[in-house]
Amino acid sequence: MMSAYFDRTRPTYIENWSAALNTLTIPQVDVPLTLEEARALGRVSREFGKWFGDGPAEPLDSVRERIDDALGNFPEGAFVRLGSRSGKDSAYAHHRGLRVTDAAAALRMLTDDSHRIAYDLRLALHHNYCPHVFVRRWMEIPAWAEFRCFMKGRSLVGITQYDCRNLGRRPEIADNAALIKSAIIEFFEALSAVSHLDDVVFDVFVQLGEENSGARARVRLLELNPFFYKTDACLFHWSNGGDFDGSFRFL
Fold first, then answer.
1. What is the number of domains present in the chain?
2. pLDDT tens-digit profile of 159-195?
């Protein structure tokens, strides 16, 4: 686990965002973990628990209680993740989906054999860094509505359809491309003004107004990623410094 990798990724974690940046995302509650709680969370995983030491898993009563309190803010359900990444690869997510309504389900989302969560917990512990859990208000986000955007030197150098491998061509994007692009460009002005990073990959989702309603598209920030080759460039590529030409790319 190279310190260089951690140094690149840590500034993008949600707990390291500014208050102004947090106004651009979905309502959420921060649940900080101690190092001991992070280790206990990792040890629950059947597949990856061995990364966190031998012996029985330690109780997570305090974490469960704090997550339960946070869930009280979102009676219609929530999405639970680390500040670094989500457990969308967990067995719970694959079988039950990403929405949780109680602390037991939230802990399963974070511990049910998610390689992403286990890796990030181990990385944090290796650097004596206390990770954070975020409980985020549940929102239905169609897969086509997510876009990956690239900021270099505080300039918007590319926008791409996020799920470009499974969805194929989507009329929602093709028929509203100009509206989507202009909405993201407008959103970018707000993001670039408050970002603590000059170079970053940021993911957003776009809500289109009702047809003929005159409502403008709304853009919200989902997460930040480092501007480097380990971040999926989707319909762009990182070869030879990348081909980020400021375009909006979709299938």
1. 2
2. 999 999 889 899 999 999 999 999 999 999 999 999 9
